[in-house]
Amino acid sequence: MTVTLPSWEDEVIRIEPLTMAHLEFVIALRNNDEVRRYSGRDPFGSHDEALAFVQKIVDNNQSGQATCWVIIEKSSGYPVGNGGAWRMDQQHNLGEIGYSLLPPWWGKGYISRALPPMLDYLFTVQGLHRIEANVDPRNTRSASVLQRLGFH
After folding, report:
1. How far does CA 83 lie from the centroid of its chain?
2. Exposed/middle/buried for 54, CB within 10 Å: 0-12, 13-18, 19+?
3. What is the DSSP letter of 17?
4. pLDDT at 69
5. Bridge partners of residue 68, in order along the sequence
6. How far from 48 is each of 18, 32, 61, 90, CA to CA, in Å?
7. Are 14 and 81 in contact (CB under 8 A)?
8. d(CA 72, CA 43)
9. 117, 151, 112: which is closest to 135 by C-alpha?
10. What is the C-alpha separation between 27 and 80, in angstroms, rounded?
11. CA-CA distance, 37 to 136, in Å (whole number)?
């Protein structure tokens, strides 16, 4: 079964499924020192490693094992972040969300705009009953966003 993730937009952002066309953006996001400070991930060691990583995300999007969307600033057309769910357990109807945003777009409300349609999809279409998020305790802005969205 192939899953087709939806896209959404409002007046500020467009959210679309991550594809191989977003490879260079994923590399820039993952290799950004400020983003990595909170994600705990290492930078890509090679272009091939990044390519395999993005291909796995695309495959997981298509199989329904995980979801990953790109957040695009409509005014510039530039991808500024991503978000989605992994560690999805369909048997127990639970999953974990995560997201990243390039630092110039921090504090502009993009994650607050992007997460509600993603969460709605995960609850209504994927049938999840519980969604968790892990936040680096130093990332107080991210924790605040999640609290405003009802995470405890």
Report:
1. 1
2. buried
3. E
4. 98
5. 84
6. 18, 18, 20, 31
7. no
8. 22
9. 151
10. 12
11. 9
Nearest-angstrom CA–CA distance, 71 and 91: 29
Tokens of 101: 């945003």
Phi, psi (deg, nearest 5) at residue 3: -95, 135
Q: Which of 39-43, 61-65, 87-91 has the lowest mean pLDDT?
A: 87-91
The single residue listed with the structure tokens 């950004």 is 32
SS3 at position 101: strand
Which residue, among 96, 83, 87, has the nearest Cα to 132 in the 3D structure?
96
User: Residue 29: pLDDT band by 50, 70, 90 thresholds?
Assistant: very high
**Environment class of 44 (CB within 10 Å of its CB; exposed 0-12, middle 13-18, buried 19+):** middle
Q: Could you read off the pLDDT of 75-120 as tens digits, one per residue?
A: 999 999 999 998 887 888 999 999 999 999 999 999 999 999 999 9
**Contact (CB, 8 A) for 94 and 122:** no
CA torsion angle 104 106 111 113 (round to 10): -80
Q: Tokens 């290799």 identify what position?
A: 31
The dihedral built from the CA positions of residue 92, 62, 19 and 13, taken in this order, carries a sign that is negative
